[in-house]
Q: What sequence folds into this?
């Protein structure tokens, strides 16, 4: 099946802010190039939801109304509306808690 994807600002913001914080904390070993590469990879993974990233039951309470997918270090909360996958939120594995 062919899906359309909508990435809500909250999900994209979570990914980019995580890597900006990493770059600030580890400024001598994690530069802007690393930030951009890692954030883009996390965003690219979204486009594999329901294709190679399988649907999971949410691990955190605030996502109970969504489906969840996992890729690398990122969890994604999403809904399916017809043939459109709407990514509502993203969370790095280090921050997966209620």
A:
């Amino acid at each position: 099946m062919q899906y359309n994807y909508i990435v809500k600002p909250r999900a994209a913001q979570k990914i980019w802010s995580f890597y900006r914080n990493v770059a600030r904390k580890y400024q001598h070993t994690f530069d802007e190039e690393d930030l951009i590469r890692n954030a883009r990879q996390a965003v690219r993974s979204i486009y594999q939801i329901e294709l190679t990233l399988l649907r999971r039951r949410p691990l955190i309470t605030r996502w109970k109304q969504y489906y969840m997918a996992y890729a690398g270090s990122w969890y994604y909360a999403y809904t399916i509306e017809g043939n459109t996958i709407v990514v509502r939120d993203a969370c790095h594995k280090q921050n997966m808690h209620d």
